[in-house]
C-alpha cells in the first residue's frame, strides 16, 4: 500500500481533533492557510494544522487551497491553540471564530488594493532548466516575466497560475509581492494635539510603561476620572513613533463613542474599530488593515483579541473588570486573559486598566505578578463625592424615590445642572400580581416573572422572547384588582416627568433600539441643559457627562446579598462605576437608596475604598478555595426535563476524579428553567490548574461516550463568571 501525502485540517465542527485529507500538490500549504474539504455531504472551509503521510485507503482529498499565505499567522495560531487547550474547545471552532465572517465563507484574504506579484532581481535571471522538474512553477515564472509591472492575485487566478507555485517561487527568493510604486509619504507629526500636562501619578505610570522592556503585565488601578485614558495615550506615543501598532480592548464600542474619539483626536495615525456594528465587508477590511500594518491603533470589543497584527507594540485592556470581556456562549473565552497570553507570546507590555479591578487581577498585582500602577485622585481638581447611603425601607412601589432623593433632584436641576437616576431594570415594573388571590404573571418558559412594559402595554420576559398583552382581569380568580410591584426605568421616567419641569432622558435597551437613538440621546445630554437622565448600566460605562452633579442609585441590594460568590464584587464594581459618573466637574453628590443600609459589604463599597472591600472578599474566597485561590470549571447541561439533565450529570459525577479535584453537584442551575429548557450543573473545583484540566479532559471524553448526553445539550465553562 503506497503512502500518500496528507494534510491535517482543523474544521469548524464540535468534535475534538483534526481531520486527515489527501493532498496531491507538491508543496503543502503552511499552517494557518484555509482549504476547502468535503465533510459528510457538505463542503467545509477548514484551516491547515499540519501535514503528514497516510496509507489509510478511504481518505478524501482536499478540494481547494484558498490561501498562499496563512490567513492566521503563526503567532495568532499559537494563541488559538493555547485557547483551545485551556478552554477545552475544538481547535477548528476556535480558528473559525478568529476569522472574519467573509473569510469563513471563503473570500479572498487580500486587501482590496491588493499587492502585486513581481519577479525579484534574482528571479529575473533564473534559467528555465532550473525549473525543469516543476512545470507549474515554470509556468508561473514565465507569466511573471511577461508582466514586468506585476500581477494582482485576481489576474494571476484568471491566468490560471497556481498559488502554490507562486509561494514556491517566493520561498526560493525569485518572486515577491509588493505594492504599486507610490511616492514615499513625507514624515508626519504623530500628535494631532498636544498631550495634557500629566500629574505626578500619571507621570510615574507613563514612565513605567514606556520603560517596560518585553512582556510586562501592568494593572493601572485608577479611580474613575483619574486620567487612565491620558496614561494610555501618552504610553502609546513612543510605541506609535517606533512604527508599531497598539491594540485596545474596550467593553462596548457602541456605548462609548467618546473613547474612540479621544484616540482619533490625539494621533494622526489610522485608527480602526472592530466590533459587531460593522458590516462584514468593513470588518474584513479593518482586519486586513491590521494584518497588513496600515492600521496603527485598533480599538475593539473582546473578539478583537484575535486580530492579526503586522507589528504589535502594546496591548491595552480598558475597563478590564468588565464582564463583557468573557464570552458567555459557544467558545467561552476571557479576552482579558487572552490579552495577557498574547502579550507574553509577543514579548510586549499589556495594560489592564480599571477603577474596580477584578479580584483575580488585583490578586495578581498584590502577589507581584502584575505591576501595579495607581492613580488615586481625580485628574481635574474636583473632589470625589462620597456615597451617602439612604434607608429606603419606607419607599413604596408607587413612589420608589425617597423624599431626600426627590429634593436633591429638584435642587440639582434648579441649579442648572444634570442628574442621573440609575436603576438596573428596564420596563415599568418587574412584576404584576392579583391583589385578591396573589396570582403573579410568570413566563411559562422560564423561572422568571414577566416585566410590565407600559409603553406598549405588554408583559415581557427578559430571559427569553416570550411576551403577551397585559390581562385586564386575573386569569385565576377574575378579579380586576391587578397591581404592579417594584420599579423599572419606564416608571421612574414617568414619575420624574410629573415631578420636575426639566426634560427626562431615558437610556436603556428599549429606548435606544433604533439605530442612532443612543447617539441622539447622548447629544442631548452633552448639550448641557438641565435634565434628568434615567438609565440602566448602559449609562455606567465610560461616558463623560460634564454637567452631571447628582447621581441617585436604586435597587442595588440584590448583588450584595447574592448567593453567587461574585455577587458582591460585581455589585461594588457597578456601584462605583455609576457613582463615578458624577463629580467630573465640580463636586457632585451620590445617593444610594438601600433596604439594607447597614449591610457591611455595601457600607464598605459605599465608603469608596474598593481596595479594602477587595481585601475582605479575597479573604473569604481564600477560605472557601474560590478564585483566585482555587480554580473552577462548570459543566452545564440543558434538557427537556430536569430529570434528564440531572441524570446525565449524575452519571458523569460517578467518575473518580484525580487527586485534588472536587466535584460538586449536580444541582439545578440558579434559574432552573429558561426558554423552555431545564438546566443543571456540575462544578469542578481544584487548588491547582493541571489536575483540573486533566479532570476536564476525562469528563469530556466520558460525556461524549454516554448515551444520555445525546438527549441534552451540554458544555464546559472554564473559569465561569456567572454560576
Ligand atoms: P478615567 O479613564 O480614569 O476615568 P479619563 O482619562 O477619562 O479618566 O480622565 C477624566 C478627565 O480628566 C478627562 O476629561 C480628561 O481629559 C481629564 N484629564 C486627564 N488627565 C488630565 C491631566 N493631566 N490634566 C488635566 N485634565 C486631565
Ligand atoms: Zn386573582
Ligand atoms: Zn421567559
What does this structure look like?
The protein is an alpha/beta fold. Helices cover 31% and strands 23% of the residues. The chain folds into five domains: 6-105, 3-Layer(aba) Sandwich (GIY-YIG endonuclease); 114-180; 200-375, 3-Layer(aba) Sandwich (Rossmann fold); 387-428 and 486-619, 3-Layer(aba) Sandwich (Rossmann fold), CATH 3.40.50; 631-718, Alpha-Beta Plaits (2-Layer Sandwich). Bound molecules: adenosine-5'-diphosphate and zinc ion (ZN) (2 copies). The site of one zinc ion has 8 residues, from loops.
Brief overview, please?
This protein is α/β, with parallel strands linked by helices. 31% of the residues lie in helices and 23% in strands. The longest helix is centred in the last third of the chain and has 17 residues, at 689-705.
Write a concise keyword list for the protein shown above.
alpha/beta; binds zinc ion; binds adenosine-5'-diphosphate; 21 helices; 7-stranded parallel β-sheet; GIY-YIG endonuclease; Rossmann fold; 6-stranded parallel β-sheet; 723 residues
Strand order of the largest sheet: 10-11-9-12-13-8-14
Might you state the CATH topology name of the largest domain? Rossmann fold
Give the percentage of residues in beta strands: 15-25%
Main beta sheet: strand number and arrangement? 7 strands, parallel
CATH architecture of the largest domain: 3-Layer(aba) Sandwich
Low-confidence stretches: none
Shape: globular
**Which compounds are bound in this model?**
adenosine-5'-diphosphate, zinc ion
Question: How many domains, in number, for the residues?
Answer: 5
The helix content is: 25-40%
Number of helices: 21
CATH superfamily of the largest domain: P-loop containing nucleotide triphosphate hydrolases
**Average pLDDT rating:** 91
Span of the ends, CA to CA: 54 Å
Structural class assignment:
alpha/beta
Radius of gyration, CA atoms, in whole angstroms: 29 Å
The top-level CATH class of the largest domain is Alpha Beta
Q: How many β-strand runs?
A: 29
Amino acid at each position: 500500500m503506497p503512502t500518500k501525502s496528507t494534510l491535517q485540517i482543523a474544521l469548524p465542527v464540535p468534535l475534538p481533533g483534526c481531520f486527515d485529507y489527501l493532498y496531491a500538490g507538491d508543496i503543502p500549504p503552511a499552517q494557518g492557510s484555509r482549504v476547502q474539504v468535503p465533510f459528510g455531504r457538505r463542503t467545509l472551509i477548514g484551516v491547515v494544522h499540519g501535514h503528514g503521510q497516510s496509507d489509510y485507503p478511504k481518505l478524501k482529498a482536499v478540494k481547494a487551497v484558498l490561501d498562499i499565505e496563512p490567513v492566521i499567522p503563526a503567532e495568532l495560531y499559537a494563541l488559538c491553540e493555547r485557547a483551545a487547550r485551556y478552554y477545552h474547545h475544538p481547535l477548528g471552532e476556535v480558528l473559525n471564530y478568529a476569522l472574519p465572517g467573509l473569510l469563513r465563507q471563503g473570500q479572498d484574504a487580500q486587501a482590496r488594493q491588493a499587492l502585486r506579484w513581481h519577479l525579484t532581481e534574482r528571479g529575473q535571471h533564473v534559467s528555465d532548466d532550473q525549473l525543469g522538474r516543476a512545470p507549474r512553477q515554470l509556468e508561473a515564472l514565465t507569466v511573471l516575466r511577461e508582466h514586468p509591472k506585476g500581477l494582482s492575485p485576481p489576474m494571476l487566478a484568471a491566468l490560471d497560475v497556481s498559488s502554490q507555485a507562486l509561494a514556491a517561487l517566493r520561498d526560493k527568493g525569485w518572486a515577491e509581492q509588493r505594492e504599486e510604486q507610490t511616492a514615499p509619504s513625507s514624515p508626519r507629526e504623530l500628535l494631532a494635539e498636544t498631550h495634557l500636562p500629566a500629574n505626578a501619578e500619571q507621570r510615574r505610570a507613563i514612565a513605567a510603561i514606556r520603560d517596560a522592556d518585553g512582556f510586562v503585565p501592568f494593572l493601572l488601578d485608577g479611580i474613575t476620572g483619574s486620567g487612565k485614558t491620558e496614561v494610555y495615550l501618552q504610553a502609546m506615543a513612543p510605541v506609535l513613533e517606533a512604527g508599531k501598532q497598539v491594540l485596545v480592548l474596550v467593553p462596548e464600542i457602541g456605548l462609548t463613542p467618546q473613547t474612540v474619539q479621544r484616540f482619533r483626536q490625539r494621533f494622526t495615525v489610522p485608527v480602526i474599530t472592530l466590533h459587531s456594528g460593522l458590516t462584514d465587508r468593513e470588518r474584513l477590511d479593518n482586519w486586513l488593515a491590521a494584518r497588513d500594518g496600515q492600521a496603527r491603533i485598533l480599538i475593539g470589543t473582546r473578539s478583537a483579541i484575535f486580530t492579526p497584527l503586522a507589528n504589535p507594540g502594546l496591548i491595552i485592556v480598558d475597563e478590564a473588570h468588565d464582564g463583557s470581556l468573557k464570552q458567555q456562549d459557544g467558545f467561552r473565552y476571557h479576552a482579558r486573559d487572552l490579552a495577557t497570553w498574547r502579550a507574553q507570546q509577543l514579548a510586549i507590555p499589556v495594560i489592564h486598566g480599571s477603577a474596580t479591578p477584578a479580584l483575580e487581577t488585583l490578586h495578581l498585582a498584590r502577589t507581584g505578578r502584575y505591576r501595579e500602577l495607581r492613580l488615586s485622585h481625580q485628574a481635574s481638581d474636583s473632589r470625589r463625592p462620597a456615597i451617602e447611603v439612604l434607608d429606603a425601607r419606607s419607599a413604596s412601589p408607587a413612589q420608589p424615590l425617597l423624599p431626600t432623593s426627590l429634593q436633591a433632584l429638584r435642587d440639582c436641576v434648579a441649579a442648572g445642572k444634570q442628574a442621573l437616576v440609575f436603576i438596573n431594570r428596564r420596563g415599568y415594573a418587574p412584576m404584576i400580581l392579583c391583589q385578591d388571590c396573589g396570582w403573579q404573571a410568570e413566563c411559562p418558559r422560564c423561572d422568571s416573572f414577566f416585566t410590565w412594559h407600559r409603553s406598549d402595554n405588554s408583559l415581557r420576559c427578559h430571559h427569553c422572547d416570550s411576551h403577551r398583552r397585559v390581562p385586564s382581569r386575573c386569569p385565576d380568580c377574575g378579579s380586576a384588582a391587578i397591581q404592579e410591584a417594584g420599579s423599572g426605568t419606564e416608571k421612574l421616567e414617568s414619575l420624574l416627568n410629573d415631578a420636575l419641569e426639566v426634560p427626562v432622558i431615558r437610556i436603556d435597551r428599549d429606548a435606544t433600539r433604533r439605530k442612532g437613538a443612543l447617539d441622539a440621546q447622548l447629544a442631548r445630554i452633552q448639550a448641557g441643559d438641565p435634565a434628568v437622565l434615567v438609565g440602566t448600566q448602559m449609562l455606567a460605562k465610560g461616558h463623560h457627562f460634564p454637567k452631571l452633579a447628582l447621581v441617585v442609585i436604586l435597587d442595588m441590594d440584590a448583588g450584595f446579598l447574592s448567593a453567587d460568590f461574585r455577587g458582591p464584587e460585581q455589585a461594588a464594581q457597578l456601584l462605583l462605576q455609576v457613582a463615578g459618573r458624577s463629580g467630573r466637574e465640580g463636586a457632585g453628590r451620590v445617593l444610594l437608596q438601600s433596604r439594607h443600609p447597614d449591610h457591611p459589604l455595601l457600607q464598605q463599597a459605599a465608603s469608596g475604598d474598593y481596595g479594602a472591600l477587595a481585601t475582605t472578599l479575597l479573604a473569604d474566597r481564600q477560605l472557601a478555595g474560590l478564585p483566585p485561590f482555587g480554580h473552577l470549571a462548570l459543566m452545564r447541561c440543558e434538557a427537556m426535563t430536569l430529570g434528564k439533565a440531572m441524570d446525565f450529570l449524575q452519571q458523569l459525577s460517578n467518575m473518580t476524579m484525580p487527586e485534588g479535584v472536587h466535584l460538586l453537584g449536580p444541582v439545578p442551575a440558579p434559574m432552573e428553567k429558561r426558554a423552555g429548557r431545564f438546566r443543571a450543573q456540575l462544578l469542578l473545583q481544584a487548588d491547582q490548574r493541571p489536575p483540573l484540566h486533566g479532570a476536564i479532559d476525562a469528563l469530556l471524553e466520558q460525556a461524549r461516550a454516554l448515551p444520555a448526553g445525546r438527549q441534552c445539550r451540554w458544555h464546559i465553562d472554564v473559569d465561569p463568571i456567572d454560576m
